[in-house]
Amino acid sequence: xxxxxxxxxxxxxxxxxxxxxxxxxxxxxxxxxxxxxxxxxxxxxxxxxxxxxxxxxxxxxxxxxxxxxxxxxxxxxxxxxxxxxxxxxxxxxxxxxxxxxxxxxxxxxxxxxxxxxxxxxxxxxxxxxxxxxxxxxxxxxxxxxxxxxxxxxxxxxxxxxxxxxxxxxxxxxxxxxxxxxxxxxxxxxxxxxxxxxxxxxxxxxxxxxxxxxxxxxxxxxxxxxxxxxxxxxxxxxxxxxxxxxxxxxxxxxxxxxxxxxxxxxxxxxxxxxxxxxxxxxxxxxxxxxxxxxxxxxxxxxxxxxxxxxxxxxxxxxxxxxxxxxxxxxxxxxxxxxxxxxxxxxxxxxxxxxxxxxxxxxxxxxxxxxxxxxxxxxxxxxxxxxxxxxxxxxxxxxxxxxxxxxxxxxxxxxxxxxxxxxxxxxxxxxxxxxxxxxxxxxxxxxxxxxxxxxxxxxxxxxxxxxxxxxx
Length: 470
Description:
Distance between the termini: 61 Å
Helix content: 55-70%
Shape: globular
Mean pLDDT: 87
Strand content: 5-15%
Number of domains: 1
Number of helices: 14
Number of strands: 6
Strand order of the largest sheet: 1-2
Structural class: mainly alpha
Order of helices and strands: HHHHHEEHHHHEEHHHHEEH
Largest sheet: 2 strands, antiparallel
Low-confidence stretches: 446-470
Radius of gyration: 24 Å
C-alpha cells in the first residue's frame, strides 16, 4: 500500500490515464479519415477548389492527430506485460491474436497508404491517390473493428474453453470475434467517432464564420458538419438504446449501476432516475429524482415487469456505482445537446440563416470538444461498469495483476503524467493553432505554381455567397 493506494488501484489508474489520452486521438482520426475521403472524392467529381482546399487543410491536422494516436497507443501495450502480466498469460491466447490482426491488417494498411495520401497526389496520379485516401479511411475503421472485438470479448466472452492452468483457449474464432456485444459496440463507437469529428469540423467552421461569414471554406465545412450532426445524432441515440438492451441481457449488473437501481422492484413500475447521489455505503440513491415506470418502458418491458437491483448482488461483485451512474449521464446529456444543436442548424438552414446565425456559431464552437468528452464518458461507463472483472464474470481484476509493488507503479504513473501532459499538451496546442488558421488555397507543387485543373474548362464566376448544396 502507498498512502492508502494499493498496487491494483494505481495500476488501474495508470491504464485509465494512458487510455484516456489515447482514445481521443483514434476517435478523431477515424472520423477525419473518412471526411478526407469524402472531400477528395467530391473534389475529383466536381472540381470545386473548395473541396481541395479543405482536403489539404484537414489532412495536415489528420497527420498530427494520427501520429499522436500511434505514440499514445504503444505505451498501453507495454502495460499488459508490466502491470497486467497475469491477465496477459490467461487471456493472451484469445486477446493476443486479435491485437496482432489489428496491427497486420489495419495499422499496416493505414501506415502503408498514409504517405501516398499526404504527399503523393502529383506523384502517383489522382486515381491512385484517391485509392490511398480510401484505404487510410478503411484502415482506421478496420483498426477500430479489431480493438473493439477484443474489448467486446472481455465484456461478453464467447467461443472459448478454460484449460487446467486457467488459460482461455480459443475454440471458435467466429464466436470470439463476433461475440454478443461486438456489433452494438462497434456501431456505437464508429458513430461516436463520426460525431466527434463533425463537431470539431463544425466548431472550426463556426470560428471562421464568426470572423467572416462570407468565408467560402468555412461555410462549406460548417454546412457539411451540421448535416452530419442532423443525420447521425438520432441514429447514434437509437444505437445507444439498442446497445443498452444488449448490455441488460449480458451485463445486468452494469445496467443496475448505470441506472442507480440499488433496490429491486418486484412489482414493476421501475423508475428512471434522472439525478441522484449514489451511496454505496448505504446502498441507496440519495436525493433521487426519478419518473416512476419509465425505467420499464425504456427497456421495453411492461409497467408491471419486475426488475432486480443491486440488493441482489454481493457487495464484492458490484462496480463503483457513483462513477458509472454519472459518466453515463454525462454521455447521454451530451448526446441530447448534440441532437439540439443539429435541430437548431436544420431550422437555421430551412430559414436560410445557417451562415448568419451567430448564436448557432457560438454554440457550435462551444460544442466542439463535446464529442471527446462523450467518448471518454462512454468508455468510463463501459470499463468501470465491468468491474470487478477484466474478463466479465470469469477473471477478476485483482487476479489479473502482475506481482508488482505500489511504489513502482506510482513512480511510473507520475512519469506518465508529466510526459503525457508535456508531449500531448504541446501536440494538442499545435493542433489548435492549426485550426485557428483559416484554410488557404493550396499549391500542389513548388515548381508548377498555383493549382491548375488540366483539361477542365473554368466554371463561370458566381455569387461568392452561393454554395451549391447548401
